[in-house]
C-alpha cells in the first residue's frame, strides 16, 4: 500500500509538471524564493550586487529592520542583481519609497512618499535613466542605490 501511495504521488507530480509545460505556463525551476536578513548578506556597493556569506549571488528577498523590529526595507534580487520591486518604509510603517529594478538597473516606476503616505514624486525610469530629465542632469542625479531618492528640483 505504501509503495502504491508513493507511486501515485510521483505520478501526480510528474503529471502536473507536464501539464504546466504543455499549457504554456512557466514551469517552476530553480531554487525556492528565499528571504535573507541584512546581516546574512555581503553587499558590493561599487557593483551594486549582493552575495551570501559563501560568496554565492543572492536570489530572493533581502529585508532590513528598524531597531524596534519593524520592517525598514525589502529588496528583490536575482543572481546577485537588484531585480523586482524595492520598498523602503518609515518607522510608522508607511511606504517611503518604491522602485522597480530590472537586471540591476532602475527600469519602471519609482515613487517617493511623505510620512503620511502621500505621493510626492514619481519617475518612470528607462534603463537607469529618467527620460524626462536633460542628459546632463541624469548623470548627476541618478540614484546610487535602492534608498537614494533624487533631490527635488524647483518647477
Structure description:
The termini are far apart. Helices cover 18% and strands 37% of the residues. It is flat. The protein is built from two helices and ten strands, in the order αββββββββββα. The protein has helices at 2-22, 135-141, and strands at 34-37, 41-44, 49-52, 60-65, 71-78, 81-82, 84-89, 95-102, 105-113, 119-125. The protein has two domains: 1-30; 32-141, Outer Surface Protein A, domain 3. With 155 residues, it is an alpha+beta fold.
Q: What helical percentage do the residues reach?
A: 10-25%
**Can you tell me the CATH topology of the largest domain?**
Outer Surface Protein A, domain 3
Number of strands: 10
Kindly name the structural category. Answer: alpha+beta
Name its key features.
Outer Surface Protein A, domain 3, 155 residues, alpha+beta, two-stranded antiparallel sheet, 37% strand, 10 strands, 2 domains
In short:
With 155 residues, this protein is of the alpha+beta class.
Question: How do the strands and helices of this protein lay out in sequence?
Answer:
Blueprint: H1 2-22, E1 34-37, E2 41-44, E3 49-52, E4 60-65, E5 71-78, E6 81-82, E7 84-89, E8 95-102, E9 105-113, E10 119-125, H2 135-141
Parallel strand pairs: 1-4
Antiparallel strand pairs: 2-3, 4-5, 5-6, 5-7, 7-8, 8-9, 9-10
Amino acid at each position: 500500500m505504501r509503495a502504491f501511495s508513493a507511486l501515485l504521488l510521483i505520478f501526480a507530480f510528474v503529471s502536473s509538471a507536464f501539464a504546466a509545460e504543455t499549457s504554456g505556463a512557466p514551469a517552476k525551476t530553480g531554487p525556492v524564493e528565499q528571504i535573507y536578513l541584512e546581516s546574512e548578506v555581503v553587499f558590493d556597493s561599487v557593483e551594486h550586487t549582493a552575495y551570501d556569506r559563501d560568496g554565492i549571488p543572492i536570489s530572493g528577498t533581502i529585508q532590513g529592520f528598524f531597531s524596534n523590529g519593524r520592517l525598514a526595507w525589502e529588496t528583490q534580487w536575482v543572481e546577485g542583481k537588484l531585480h523586482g520591486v524595492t520598498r523602503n518604509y518609515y518607522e510608522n510603517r508607511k511606504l517611503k519609497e518604491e522602485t522597480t529594478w530590472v537586471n540591476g538597473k532602475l527600469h519602471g516606476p519609482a515613487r517617493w512618499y511623505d510620512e503620511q503616505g502621500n505621493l510626492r514624486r514619481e519617475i518612470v525610469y528607462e534603463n537607469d535613466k529618467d527620460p524626462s530629465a536633460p542628459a546632463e542632469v541624469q548623470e548627476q542625479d541618478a540614484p546610487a542605490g535602492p534608498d537614494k531618492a533624487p533631490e527635488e528640483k524647483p518647477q
